[in-house]
TrEMBL record:
The keyword Calcium applies. Residues 1-36 form the signal peptide. The keyword Signal applies. Its main location: membrane. This is Cadherin domain-containing protein. It is a single-pass type I membrane protein. Keywords: Calcium, Cell adhesion, Glycoprotein, Membrane, Repeat, Signal, Transmembrane, Transmembrane helix. The chain crosses the membrane at residues 689-712. One of its GO terms (molecular function) is calcium ion binding. It comes from Mandrillus leucophaeus. Residues 74-133, 142-242, 243-347, 348-452, 453-562, 577-672 form the Cadherin domain. CDD domains: Cadherin_repeat. GO terms for biological process: homophilic cell adhesion via plasma membrane adhesion molecules; nervous system development. One of its GO terms (cellular component) is plasma membrane.
Amino acid sequence: MEPGKGRAQRTRQVLLFFVFLGGSLVCSETWSYSTAEEMEVGTFIANVVKDMGLDVEDLVARGARVIFDDYKPYLRLDPQNGDLLLNEQLDREALCDLTEPCILHFQVLFENPLQFFRAELLVKDINDHTPTFLNNHILLKVSEGTTLGTVFQIDSAQDLDVGKNGVQNYTVSPNPYFHLKLRHSDEGRKYPELVLDQSLDREKESELSLTLTAVDGGSPPRSGTTLINVVVLDINDNAPEFEKPVYEVHVPESSPLDSLIIKVSATDLDAGINGELSYSFSHVSRDVRKTFEIHPISGEVYLKAPLDFEIIQSYIINIQAIDSGSLSGKSNILVRVVDVNDNPPEIAMTSLTSPIPENSSPEMVVAVFSIRDQDSGDNGRMVCSIQDNLPFVLKPTFKNFYSLVTEHPLDREIRNEYNITITVTDLGTPRLKTEHNITVLVSDVNDNAPAFTQTSYTLFVRENNSPALHIGSVSATDRDSGTNAQVTYSLLPSQDPHLPLPSLVSINANSGHLFALRSLDYEALQEFEFRVGATDRGSPALSSEALVRVLVLDANDNSPFVLYPLQNGSAPCTELVPRAAEPGYLVTKVVAVDGDSGQNAWLSYQLLKATEPGLFGVWAHNGEVRTARLLSERDAVKHRLVVLVKDNGEPPRSATATLHVLLVDGFSQPYLPLPEAAPAQAQADSLTIYLVVALASVSSLFLLSVLLFVAVRLCRRSRAASVGRCSVPEGPFPGHLVDVSGTGTLSQSYQYEVCLTGGSGTNEFKFLKPIIPNLLPRDSEMEKDKSNFVNGFGFN
């Protein structure tokens, strides 16, 4: 082209451009055409001549041509027939990216005279792209202690196609642990989430491999997969938490690249590797990933692509902080160039009832409040909620009024206070919420009876205690509070009519302390039982009872009592021992009892005093008095023995028994020899001799008669034909002796006759059959005979 001609043509184009701007020759009608992307070059679009009502000859004559807004020759006009043909293959994704519909505006210009027609070309999307994941392998770390129903967000697949040709569904390979859940964003995108169905156990299976498939809606559909490697970790029970739930920042669109937008920070209460955080984006669009980047360690967000307000007015960046245990904390960064949702919802409390009784009926109104949001549209639409797992529900009443009511009866003993957070969230972007905390107290109702710490108590009290002695305590608790929990103790009427319980024990009504009102005697009362009651002060009052068993412990308060020989101040008991007795000869047996029990009643015997030490001995356990050696002529005739009887108590108590022993010759003969008569006096008076002989004869006959009488009496009483000496205690035994088995104590209603028998063999101390106390006259007669018998030997 020549230079002059080129300048003229450019001048003409400039003029045409200004004329075009003026719009004086613009046709008001706009023709619309459409074609699918990726069509072959030369594909027929439309016929301009037919649409515009022109002739084919006008095309060449008037210099008709097609001009697009971006001056790119997407179409060409065939001057021979007026057909609009594709001049190049169209790529909808390159032309319009995600904008839908994709429309290219162009004009058909005519010269001579100047005229142009407006038109637009709709480029239709075809399913020519496969969904792809940013990563072929996704590492998902899940703690084995993760609760069921936990949601794990997975990066979504990217598909350059739009509409139904974009990603429509996700599937995950069958497994018993997770199922897939789709979440829809406000822009209509679908994001996959894994929901935990079954608890993980790292010790059984430490890793899982899942295949995530993204499918678009084209025909035929295209799909892309990624491998999810689930690593099961030990329990990490603290998730990271951001300082703010939402970060909002205003960024000028002229901000330079690599400029710092905002720095986010999260904290993790865990220590060590579980507290190391990694920051990343979560479920963000391709535009966000193309425009922003976040430093994984510092949490600083930088700008890496220019901002264009005319294309995108705001960005919502979902960020997450993940620790090494795969627990994450989430927050949002709202990057705005225009106005934002800056009015949070408001809560106004109208009424609040607190406390409320624990037996309140369901549907009881606890609080009434109203909510409002000064924004409009979605920014002004609100959702009101409270925490889960509370016995309260929210019910809408009138317009924006809500009532908080009980869902089921309450139990103050389980929980006496509820901190309820009323959360109102609007539906704007980002969502703003307002929280209002109220405290509802639960008042007590007397619905719990006092409960003793034990169903039965066993108390031990030593006898001879001082009156008003504290012997033990009972205790009962009441789960109620206030006066409903104040417990009063009391003694319940005894079921034993013979037990004088009011005179034995008392109880402190406030503390439950038990006191013995009088001194207890083990020998009279070894144990007794009674029941105590615990009653609260509620209305109506509730009560319970417990069994108390009191065991009286024995004290060594009874001295041994000697049964034989009886120490009653009467004539002393005299035992006869033949001088021919062998060592170990049984002289007599000291019999004693003790009113106490146990070791306090264990008796031991010992010889305390003796006329001739070493002649007699006492067996320590049975009280038998035996000769210790052979008797000699030099041994004294009369012997006095003092036997000490001592119990085994602490301190020990004792008693003494005094025995009188006579050594006699020929004790085993049926008669006793008479003393030798004095030799006759030579040259004595015959009358004196006669008198002496007569007196001796009379005395011998009398003594023989007494011996025969005593022998007959003794033979009647003794099963052995032996001569002995008997002594029966006079009068009844003391009344404080009671029958205790195994201790040797004699019954109060019996007296025993103790006899010393002698024979040619071994001597033995025997208890004979009991005799009736009314035989006292016979015993008195026997005592008289015994006295005559002793006096016959010249003993006083």
